Amino acid sequence: MSRIVRTATLLVVPTKEEIALCLTNELQNRSIEHVALSGGSLPSLLQMKPEWQWHIYLADERCVPSTRPDSNLGALFAANCLQHIPPDHIHGINEELLEDPHACAQDYQQLLQQHLFLQQRGLDLAVLGFGEDGHTCSLFPHHSLLHSPNHVAAILDSPKPPPHRITLTLKALAETQHVIFVGAGSAKAPVLRQVFEQQVQWEETDSESISVRRATVQMRDPAPFPCGAVTAQQSVTWIVDAEAAAQL
Ligand SMILES: O=C(O)[C@H](O)[C@@H](O)[C@H](O)[C@H](O)COP(=O)(O)O
What we know:
By secondary structure, the chain is of the alpha/beta class.
């Protein structure tokens, strides 16, 4: 049986502070309209430009009101990521359905369907974090949601609180044009060591505005963690700081 070869681009910057700059450079001049963003540390690593008038969706969301600090939409607002986005381009979950995560997930899938999937297109971009246990979005290791045939699914037993959430699935990400993972800090290093195959061969880089180490990496197969199982239509890129890359 033929094996699916999955490669990604790895970009390593010296410190956490440079991740936002590197991410901005990566996003500059790309044709992007529909974007999913996750929560966690991502909002603090993202500097949105006023000219990016994208449609914003949530890669995952906790079933809490967006006024609460643990809401991912709330965190994106609090970090000023959405200040230039027209309100009708910001697509949060239906907060009337917070008590019923399954209905909430179904409702969000319908929203995505209206905007994208009915036109037979996926998202242009998903910018995602990854956890120390290798989860991404709210897709946790060994969880049955990893095999969901839907684009959006509900989780009622998230190991990372709060337990009730909705999430894009691996299927929805696989239909996305570009996926970019971002992460910083030594706690992420063991995950990075395990998701890539063997030794990373660093490539020569032209002088850039920031110092970036670049490599084309092959993803380990089978993937040891949900974040390593993510595929996309055109590209998967990992932007991390030197601490996260220390074990490569
Ligand atoms: O709702 C969430 O918890 C996030 O969307 C989640 O998927 C996050 O991106 C990862 O847990 C990484 O979080 P950190 O970047 O904070 O480690």
